[in-house]
Design goal:
CATH superfamily: Gcn5-related N-acetyltransferase (GNAT)
GO molecular function, one term: acyltransferase activity, transferring groups other than amino-acyl groups
Order of helices and strands: HEHHEEEEEHEH
Largest sheet: 5 strands, mixed
Distance between the termini: 43 Å
Helix content: 25-40%
CATH topology: Aminopeptidase
CATH class: Alpha Beta
CATH architecture: 3-Layer(aba) Sandwich
Strand order of the largest sheet: 1-2-5-6-7
Shape: globular
Number of domains: 1
Number of helices: 5
Structural class: alpha+beta
Protein name: N-acetyltransferase domain-containing protein
Number of strands: 7
Radius of gyration: 16 Å
InterPro entries: Acetyltransferase_Butenolide, Acyl_CoA_acyltransferase, GNAT_dom
Organism: Neocucurbitaria cava
Length: 165
Amino acid sequence: MSDSEQYVILEGVPSPQVYHDLRKLAGMTPPPLEAVPKSLANSYVSLVAYERKHMLNDTTPGPEQDAVGMGRLVGDGSLFLIMVDIAVHPEHQRKGIGKRIVQRLVDYVDEHAPWAYVSLVADVPAQKLYPQYGFKDVKPSVGMFRMKRGRRLQDEVQEGAEKES
């Protein structure tokens, strides 16, 4: 069975705990758990990847089955969308799951919000993934962020960005 046949990607939302844990396992900053339910509920579209061998059928994960990957779009659903949370569990990385999730999200935008400006922020290891799907550097614009929680984390991110320049 090929890697693409080993996994099923479904439209849906992971549980808040699975979302939190998957971000952490994938090396992404885990958000405050209390903020996750509202965030997930406000997704424009959310995709979740599962191992096929644990599925009850083609569209139903097993009762104790956890997600092995995920990705979301947030935004106004028409003109401005942000691709976020492209995360794959380390034991399932390098099997095309992240690529399949990004492709499905791009296809969703093309069908449902063809005029949307879709933006994202990519960690350094993932920066080679997104140009394959039409994403371009925003230069001469500059990406920025603001995060009220965790000023120390914000300072660490800024220091890391300065070291890479």
